[in-house]
């Protein structure tokens, strides 16, 4: 077993604890998963009504757009609510004041978003395969299909989690996030569209395209991890004008704590 430094082990442990807490609360209420899942089913039915009468060659060209358009919409829906618990309970300042690595917060929220997107993809891809015979080619190469969905959703979540944190306390976050999110996730979505088309066609350069998506994901996660602390602290500073004195004091305490090195949690 490879040896990991204590600091990295602490980061992984904090990431898992934060993600497990969010997933446990989601498993109790199922608000986000049910909303995203129902939205996925509605979009699949709408695609079926719109494109079912087309011939197989036209359907095959439209299927990549169906897949990633649905994932983009579900991702935007998920990201507008991924920081809802911290915003509604006014615990963002307390989270910053806690002895937790900022990178662990980013990775945990990214993991939660990725789980929701993959859950919806598990409904989306079989649904398209059932309604559109041309998409049954997916089953010929399941390993490439799984790699494509995971890599595409990972890159989308890496960008979206960063900006969802920046708009965590904004009253118009739903509109602002959509305006910011779609242009910045365009490179990931374009690579994913090309890879999906090559998967349907059995193109020999499919794995080369998947490796490019993986490299892009590494870059996006690195940039997100680098900027996340600055973005999150900025969100904590932007408290509403009608906030209580206690919440203002918590925000000031979080700002002071953010300037100093947090004591690590073992």
Walk me through what this model shows.
With 266 residues, the chain is an all-alpha fold. The chain contains 11 helices and no strands. It has helices spanning 6-29, 31-51, 56-79, 84-88, 92-97, 102-131, 142-166, 173-184, 186-201, 206-237, 245-259. Helix 3 (56-79) runs antiparallel to helix 9 (186-201) and helix 9 runs antiparallel to helix 10. It is globular. The model is unreliable at 239-266 (pLDDT under 50).
Describe the secondary-structure layout.
Elements: H1 6-29, H2 31-51, H3 56-79, H4 84-88, H5 92-97, H6 102-131, H7 142-166, H8 173-184, H9 186-201, H10 206-237, H11 245-259
Helix pairs in contact: 1-6, 2-3, 2-6, 3-6, 3-7, 3-8, 3-9, 6-7, 6-10, 7-8, 7-9, 7-10, 9-10
Q: What's the average pLDDT? A: 80
What value does the Rg take, in angstroms?
20 Å
Low-confidence stretches: 239-266
Which structural class do you get from the secondary structure elements? mainly alpha
User: What's the helix-strand series?
Assistant: HHHHHHHHHHH
- The shape is globular
Strand content: under 5%
Fraction of residues in H or I helices: over 70%
Major beta-sheet overview: none
Q: What is the CA-CA span between the terminal residues?
A: 21 Å
What is the tally of helical segments? 11
Count every beta strand, where a strand is a DSSP E run of 2 or more residues: 0
Tell me briefly what this model is.
The protein is mainly alpha-helical and 266 residues long.
